[in-house]
Amino acid sequence: MIVKRNELTWFERLYLPALVGGLKVTARHFFNNITGKTKVTQQYPEEPTKVLPGYRGAPYLVRDQDGATKCVSCQLCEFICPPKAIRMTPPGAAGQPADRPNAEKMPKEFEINMLRCIFCGLCQEVCPEEAIFLKSDFSLTGLARGEMVYNKEKLLALGGTHGGVQKWKHKLEEAKEQETFPVKV
Q1: For the chain, what are the domain ranges?
Q2: What are the helix (H) ranges across 36-160?
Q3: Hey, is 87 helix, strand or coil?
Q4: CATH number at 59-165
């Protein structure tokens, strides 16, 4: 396919409009930097860091208002994780004592390898219990590789408490109401 190109006028062939436009942009950047209008460099340890909204940081597990783990070991986060950074061990056939009433299963082990994590946020989106949240921290440090594999206790300590709907509490209240006020048929 042949594309026809229009001939340049004599003024366009001089390239002066493009040259003048580029010089204007360069001069504007130069004077803004000299006068201090645009701050380009951030002094990291001394200045507080500004994280823009929408930043996806490291994933952490959270607790509900009662201090119980919100994770129910559904393993959706493990299956959706593209680099396979999440490893979860569900409870055995006998189950495990739950942190909260009416919870069917709680994870025996839960680990996130922060060296493999790409901070995509898919684990937060897929979690039905809202047990994983992305925090706005950006400087994850460790002296050894083993320190960058966060276990369940460390993830819960860093994640903190998150409010919201407590599904299990409502189910427990409903069960108590049914026991105390039986329906006559």
Answers
A1: 12-40, 59-165
A2: 76-80, 122-126, 152-159
A3: strand
A4: 3.30.70.3270
